[in-house]
Every structure is written in structure tokens, then in C-alpha cells.
Design brief:
- It is a single chain.
- By secondary structure, the protein is α+β, with helices and mostly antiparallel strands.
- The protein is 42% helix and 17% strand.
- The strands form 4 sheets. The protein has a 3-stranded antiparallel β-sheet, with no helix packed on it. Strands 3-5-4 form a 3-stranded antiparallel β-sheet. Strands 2-10 form a two-stranded antiparallel sheet.
- Helix 5 (141-160) packs parallel to helix 8 (191-207), helix 6 packs antiparallel against helix 8 and helix 7 (179-186) packs across helix 8 (191-207).
Length: 209
């Protein structure tokens, strides 16, 4: 991957008809953020509970000790890819939305990296972008903002050094990922406000002694 400065530019385009179309939707290990889960569930017209049960698996992150939610592949392909492209394109998750960029946050700093894979011909197209232009074009601003809130939970966990028990891990999973379940408990109606509250509550869990 090549790190990009804000002033750097890159060329990229993806569209039906390009020879590598849909190749990036195969053999994925795609971790989802809480906001990804929420938006994908809403795009499918189902609850987050149903989405998590049907389309994801989960484990505990080795580095963070926090729950990690991963999209299940079907025969090595994303369950939402079709010959015409992504069937939930407007609600696609962060990694797909930002591709071919990867966004990495370290402390208060945000870095963008350009990912070039051998199969991808999009880099040979003429359309030119800056990282900021690409993020805006892909409507990723809200995703980045909400994912930064989740990063605050990861940072709080790293600072505390606390070892979470199974009950605490399950509670954080429910508060951050299964927002429809959490909303019923706290009496909030707005999805985003409920997610923010779930993350805040999870930060309290990882910060308590």
C-alpha cells in the first residue's frame, strides 16, 4: 500500500464492463463496524438482530479483546454481489465504500493508503482524485465519523488494559452491533443516537475497574 498525503492524487474508476468487475468481492475477510451493520440492515429492511444472525460471524479480537463482526462469504463471494454489481450498493460497508483507499486512524491522526491489487484494472482509468474528493464522492463522511466514535472505544480499551469477561464482551457486542436490541432497552428511537449511546456505554465498561 502507498500512503497518500492530502495533496496527492491517484487515478481510479470502477464500472460494469471493466474486465475486473466484481473481482474485489471474492475471498474477503471483511470486518464490519457497528455503523456498517446498522446501514446494511436498514438497506435490507431487517433488524440488526436478523442481519447479524444471517450474514455475520463473530470472534474476539486478539489485539483488542473486543468483539469483531465479520461478513460471511457464500462460496467465496460476498453474499450481496451479483453479475450487475453490489445489490446493496447504497448501503455498502466502509471497506467497499472507500476502496481502493484504506483509512487508518492512529490517535488523532488519519492516514489514507492506496491499495493496488494485481487483478484491479481501475487504476489504469483516467479519472483523477484526491483522497478527500474520493471520500466525498463515495459518501463516506458519515461512515468515517461514526467509525471514529467506535475507534474511541478501542482506544479506551487499549488505555485501560482491562481484561473483559464473557459477560462484558457480550454486552459490548449488543450495545454496539445489535442496535435494535439495545434501543428496546434504553428507549431510544433514533438509530444513530442509540449507536452513539451504545458506544458511550461500552467505553464505560472497558474503563471501569
Amino acid at each position: 500500500m502507498q500512503e497518500l498525503e492530502p495533496v496527492d492524487r491517484f487515478t481510479f474508476a470502477c464500472y460494469p464492463g471493466i474486465k475486473c468487475f466484481n473481482e474485489c468481492c471474492k475471498n474477503l475477510n471483511l470486518a464490519l463496524t457497528p455503523y456498517d451493520v446498522l446501514r446494511m440492515a436498514r438497506g435490507l429492511g431487517i433488524t440488526t438482530t436478523e442481519f447479524l444472525e444471517k450474514y455475520t460471524s463473530r470472534h474476539v479480537g486478539i489485539a483488542t479483546g473486543l468483539p469483531v463482526v465479520v461478513l460471511k462469504m457464500v462460496d467465496g463471494r460476498c453474499p450481496f454481489v451479483t453479475d450487475r454489481g453490489c445489490s446493496i450498493y447504497a448501503y455498502r460497508p466502509t471497506p467497499c465504500r472507500l476502496y481502493p483507499l484504506a483509512r487508518v486512524r492512529t490517535g488523532e491522526e488519519v492516514h489514507y493508503y492506496l491499495l493496488k491489487e494485481d487483478f484491479c484494472l481501475g487504476h489504469e482509468e483516467e479519472r483523477e482524485w484526491s483522497p478527500e474528493e474520493w471520500v466525498e464522492d463515495q459518501k463516506a463522511m458519515d461512515y468515517n465519523s461514526m467509525n471514529d466514535l467506535f475507534f474511541e472505544l478501542i482506544s479506551a480499551k487499549n488505555r485501560s488494559g482491562k481484561m473483559l469477561n464473557e459477560e462484558e464482551i457480550e454486552e459490548i457486542y449488543r450495545c454496539c452491533f445489535d442496535i435494535d436490541s439495545f434501543k428496546l432497552e434504553v428507549g431510544l428511537k433514533d438509530d444513530v443516537e442509540a449507536l452513539k449511546e451504545g458506544i458511550r456505554y461500552s467505553i464505560e465498561i472497558v474503563s471501569s475497574l
